[in-house]
Write a structure and sequence with these properties.
Chain A is mainly alpha-helical and 279 residues long. Chain A contains 13 helices and no strands. Chain B starts with a helix and ends with a helix. Classes of the chains: A mainly alpha (279), B mainly alpha (336).
Chain lengths: 279, 336
C-alpha cells in the first residue's frame, strides 16, 4: 500500500500509467472505436488527402482512408509486436541470466560473452541486418527485435542473481538440500523480478519505437497494414501540403512510447533504492 | 595507466571476436544457399557452382571462417554489390560526414543537457524539475525519423529558413578533403562561405540527432548534481557563505560529471545508430545513409561491414570512456 501511495504522488508516473491504460483500451476496442473500421484496407480515391474536418478529424491519406481510424487500428499492431517481442525476449533472457548468475565457471562465462556480443552493436543496426537477411517481413522484423533484445534481460538478471547467490539465505537453502532449480526459480527469481519488470516496461516503449523505424525503412509491416511507421514513410511524398498525414501517426507513436517510458521511470524509482535516495 | 588501457583492450577482444563469428554466421549460414543468393535470381546451376568455388563456399566451415578473418584483418570487405566499388574505400569516404554529424549532435546535447540537468537538480521536486523530467523522458520517446520529417516540413518546406537535404548547396564546390569534415576543412582552407553553408545544412540533422542525447545527459547530470548537493563539503561551503552560483559551477558540477561521462560515451553508440535514420531523411552522405541503401538493395556485405565497423567504434568509445574515467577518478585505476 505504501508503494501505491508513493506511486500516486509521482505525477509523471501516474500520467504514464494513464496513457498506457488508454492505449491498451483503444487497442482492445479498436474496431469499435474507429469511425471507419473498414479503412484498414479499403480505399476511397475521391476522398484522398483531405485535410482534417468533422468527418475525418485527422484528415485522410493518399488512398482516401480515414487517418484517425488507421491510427486507432494501428495501436493493435504496435502493442502486439511489443508484447510478443518483449515477452519472448524475457523468456529467453531471464533463465539465461539466472543460470549465468548462479553458476560459476565456463557455463557462466560463455553465457555472458555471448550476451556481450549482442550488446556490442546498437540494437537497431543488428536488428536491421538480421531482418534484411531473413527477408523483409513483419515476422522477420519481430524475430530480429527479439534476437537483439534478450541480452538486456540476461544482463540485469545476471547482476541480480550473482549478488543474491552470495547471500546467506541461499547458503541456508543449499545446506538444507534444496535443488538448484528450486533455488533458482522459487528463491532467486522472485528476488530479481522487479528490475526485470522495469526493463520490460521501458522495453515496450523502446520496441514500439524500433519497430516503427523498421516499418519506416520498409523492413517491417507491409501495405495495407495500418502501421504507424509505414504511414509516416508513405506520407513523405505528399509533404508539406498533407501535413496531417505524417503528424498524427507520429504523435501516436510519441504518446504511446512516452506513456511506457514515464511509467517505467516511475516504477524504477520505486524499485531501485539507490535512485530513491536522490529523489 | 598503460596497464589499465591494455587491460581494457584485452577485455573487449572476446566480444569483438564474437561479433566476427556472429556476422560470419549471418552471412554464410542464414541464407539457405549463399552462393545462390550471391548469383542472383536468374543464375544457372553452373553459374552458382562457379560462384561457390570462387568464394570458397565449397570448403569446410572452419576453413571459410579463417579465410573470413584474414579478409577482415586486411580490411578487405569485398565489393559493394550495388556500386561495384571496394566497401572499405566507400566507408572511408563516408565516415567523416557521419562523424561530423554525430560529434556536433553530441556537443549540442552536452551544451543543452548539462545546464538543464543542473536546473532540474537545483529545483528538485518543484515544477521545473517535473517539467524537465517529462521533457527528458519525452526526448527519448520521439521517433527521430518523424521528428526530422516534421522539422523539414516546417523549417524547410513551409518557412524556407533551412535547407532540406545534403551537406552543401549544389552551387558550392567544397574544398578538397583534408579531414573530410566540412566544418574543419573549410576553416583550414579559409573558406568561410563553405563554413556558413555547411553549418546551415547541419542544423536540422544535428538537432534531430541530439534529441535523445539531450534527454539522457539531462537525466544523468540531474542525478549526479543531486547526489553531490547532499555531500558534507557542499553544506560546509554554504555555511561559509560561498556564493551559490560559484559553488555550483566550481565544485558541484565538477564532482557530478563522472556519471554523465559514462552516459556520454554510451550515447555515442546510440547516436551512430540514430544517424542511420537521420541521414536517410536528410540525404546526408554518411555511413548511415550508406547502410540504408545497402539494406534496400540487399547488399549483404556492406551491411555486415558496417555492423562490424560500428561494433569497433562502440568498443573504442567504451575504452576511451574508461580511460577518461581513470583520469578523472584515480580510485578506479587502483582497483585493477
Amino acid at each position: 500500500m505504501l508503494v501505491l501511495k508513493k506511486f500516486a504522488k509521482d505525477k509523471p508516473a501516474v500520467l504514464g500509467a494513464f496513457i498506457v491504460l488508454i492505449v491498451v483500451v483503444v487497442a482492445i476496442f479498436a474496431p469499435l472505436l474507429a469511425p471507419y473500421p473498414g479503412d484498414a484496407a479499403a480505399s476511397h480515391l475521391l476522398l484522398r488527402l483531405k485535410p482534417p474536418s468533422a468527418a475525418h478529424p485527422f484528415g485522410t491519406d493518399n488512398l482516401g482512408r480515414d487517418i484517425l481510424s488507421r491510427v486507432i487500428l494501428g495501436s493493435r499492431g504496435a502493442l502486439a509486436i511489443a508484447l510478443l517481442v518483449v515477452g519472448t525476449a524475457m523468456l529467453i533472457g531471464v533463465p539465461l541470466g539466472l543460470i549465468a548468475g548462479y553458476s560459476r565457471g565456463w557455463l557462466s562465462e560463455t553465457n555472458m560473452r555471448i550476451t556481450d556480443v549482442f550488446l556490442a552493436v546498437p540494437q537497431l543496426i543488428l536488428a536491421l541486418a538480421i531482418a534484411q537477411l531473413m527477408g523483409p517481413s513483419l515476422q522477420s522484423a519481430m524475430l530480429a527485435l527479439t534476437l537483439t533484445y534478450w541480452p538486456f534481460f540476461t544482463r540485469i538478471v545476471y547482476a541480480e542473481a550473482r549478488r543474491l547467490s552470495a547471500s546467506l539465505f541461499i547458503d541456508a537453502l543449499q545446506c538444507i538440500g534444496a535443488g538448484t532449480t528450486r533455488i533458482l526459480f522459487l528463491h532467486v527469481l522472485p528476488n530479481c523480478i522487479s528490475p526485470v519488470i522495469v526493463r520490460a516496461t521501458i522495453g515496450m516503449g523502446f520496441t514500439i519505437l524500433v519497430a516503427a523505424v523498421l516499418g519506416f525503412l520498409g523492413m517491417g509491416a507491409t501495405p495495407p497494414d495500418p502501421d504507424w511507421g509505414l504511414a509516416i514513410s508513405e506520407s513523405r511524398q505528399y509533404l508539406p501540403e498533407a501535413w496531417w498525414f505524417s503528424t498524427f501517426p507520429g504523435l501516436a507513436i510519441f504518446l504511446t512510447v512516452l506513456g511506457f517510458n514515464l511509467l517505467g521511470d516511475g516504477l524504477r524509482d520505486i524499485v531501485d533504492p539507490r535512485l530513491r535516495r536522490s529523489r | 595507466m598503460l596497464r589499465f588501457i591494455l587491460r581494457r583492450l584485452l577485455l573487449v577482444m572476446p566480444s569483438l571476436l564474437g561479433l566476427l563469428v556472429l556476422t560470419f554466421i549471418l552471412i554464410r549460414l542464414v541464407p539457405a544457399d549463399p552462393a545462390a543468393a550471391l548469383a542472383g535470381e536468374n543464375a544457372t546451376p553452373a553459374q552458382i557452382a562457379e560462384i561457390r568455388r570462387q568464394y570458397g563456399l565449397d570448403q569446410p566451415v572452419h576453413v571459410q571462417f579463417v579465410r573470413y578473418l584474414g579478409q577482415i584483418a586486411r580490411l578487405d570487405f569485398g565489393e559493394s554489390a550495388y556500386s561495384r566499388r571496394p566497401i572499405a574505400l566507400e566507408i572511408s569516404q563516408r565516415l567523416p560526414a557521419t562523424l561530423e554529424l554525430t560529434i556536433c549532435a553530441l556537443l549540442f546535447g552536452i551544451a543543452v543537457g548539462i545546464p538543464l540537468g543542473t536546473i532540474a537538480a537545483l529545483y528538485h521536486n518543484r515544477w521545473p524539475d517535473t517539467v524537465l523530467r517529462i521533457i527528458s523522458v519525452g526526448g527519448v520517446a520521439i521517433a527521430a525519423f518523424w521528428f526530422a520529417i516534421e522539422l523539414q516540413m516546417l523549417f524547410s518546406m513551409k518557412l524556407g529558413w533551412l535547407p532540406l537535404r545534403g551537406r552543401l548547396d549544389a552551387g558550392i564546390t567544397p574544398p578538397s578533403p583534408i579531414t573530410g569534415m566540412l566544418l574543419i576543412d573549410s576553416l583550414l582552407t579559409g573558406r568561410l562561405d563553405v563554413l556558413r553553408n555547411a553549418l546551415w545544412h547541419l542544423t536540422l540533422p544535428a538537432l534531430t540527432l541530439s534529441l535523445g542525447g539531450i534527454a539522457t545527459i539531462t537525466r544523468f547530470t540531474r542525478a549526479g548534481v543531486l547526489d553531490t548537493l547532499q555531500k558534507d563539503f557542499v553544506t560546509y561551503e554554504r555555511a561559509q557563505g560561498y556564493p551559490a552560483g560559484a559553488l555550483i559551477w566550481k565544485f558541484v558540477l565538477r564532482n557530478s560529471i563522472v556519471a554523465a561521462i559514462t552516459q556520454i560515451g554510451l550515447l555515442f553508440g546510440s547516436l551512430i545508430a540514430g544517424a542511420v535514420v537521420v541521414e536517410t531523411i536528410f540525404d546526408w552522405p554518411g555511413v548511415g545513409f550508406y547502410t540504408v541503401q545497402a539494406i534496400l538493395t540487399a547488399d549483404t556485405k556492406v551491411m555486415l561491414a558496417v555492423t562490424l565497423l560500428i561494433g569497433v567504434i562502440y568498443a573504442v568509445v567504451n575504452i576511451l570512456v574508461d580511460v577518461v574515467h581513470g583520469l578523472v577518478d584515480p580510485r578506479l585505476r587502483e582497483q585493477d
